[in-house]
Amino acid sequence: MQDHFAHQHCGDCPIRHRAVCARCDSDELAALEQIKYYRSYQAGQTVIWSGDRMEFVGSVVTGIATLTQTMEDGRRQMVGLLLPSDFVGRPGRAVAAFDVTATTDLVMCCFRKKPFEEMMGRTPHIAQRLLEMTLDELDAAREWMLLLGRKTAREKIASLIAIIARREASLQVRRPKGVLSVDLPLTREEMADYLGLTLETVSRQMSALKKDGVISLEGNRHVMIPDLDRLLEEAGDDSDGGMLV
């Protein structure tokens, strides 16, 4: 997979219109080309451990990763998902705040941190876009607090599926019509951990959404969504916004 991207020009990147480089002009893209490289990770492989020095920053190109925090007594909590175009690492921060683990096979477009930080100072388009992405991440975190604190189990499951579906649709530039098909990056156990539910509740609500025609399933991971707006209604969100943009 990494070889597939090794010689890809930034202008042809599948996440180009959503990534940190989205506002860059041709000269700025050419400068980024000089400092970028790709890294591939297998499903289950750790990208970075919490507390480790961050020698790079970058964007998820394909695949999905999880952000996890471990407490002093060894308990672990999944605190976020990194989807294609999401940014990994924080310029100006020396160490990683969370464990980042590839949930699926993962390809990242990486930049050595020091040259990237220097380029941010010379390239307002990168700094502006990173600020936008950071504020979007803050909004999403606040919405996630609402989801965990106030939404029903059914709404939580629908919301998670919708987050992944909306992101996949956004990467296709145009909103797809008809049935939307996505592969869930999490096992039922991981979904339960992420949503604060039991495994039995996740399985029961997935079956209920299937029975009601909101989704259809092929195996445990492949989900087909005949009507995205209906899924958003089940999630307690409308089709115009919220964290599911």
Structural overview:
With 245 residues, this protein is of the alpha+beta class. It folds into 2 domains: 2-147, Jelly Rolls, CATH 2.60.120; 152-235, Winged helix-like DNA-binding domain superfamily/Winged helix DNA-binding domain (Arc Repressor Mutant, subunit A). Helix content is 40%, strand content 22%. A 4-stranded antiparallel β-sheet has the order 1-8-3-6. A hairpin with a 5-residue loop joins strand 4 and strand 5 (76-82). The longest helix has 27 residues, at 124-150. The model is unreliable at 239-245 (pLDDT under 50).
Strand order of the largest sheet: 1-8-3-6
Known CATH architecture of the largest domain: Sandwich
CATH superfamily descriptor of the largest domain: Jelly Rolls
One letter per element, helices H and strands E, the order comes to: HHEEEEEEEEHHHEHHEEH
Annotation keywords:
245 residues; alpha+beta; Jelly Rolls; Arc Repressor Mutant, subunit A; 2 domains; four-stranded antiparallel β-sheet; 8 helices; 11 strands; 40% helix; 22% strand; globular
Concise description?
The protein is of the alpha+beta class and 245 residues long. It is built from eight helices and eleven strands.
What does the secondary structure layout of this molecule look like, with pairings?
Blueprint: H1 2-5, H2 26-35, E1 36-41, E2 46-48, E3 56-62, E4 65-70, E5 76-82, E6 87-88, E7 99-102, E8 106-112, H3 113-122, H4 124-150, H5 153-171, E9 180-183, H6 188-195, H7 199-211, E10 216-218, E11 222-225, H8 228-234
Helix pairs in contact: 3-4, 5-7, 5-8, 6-7
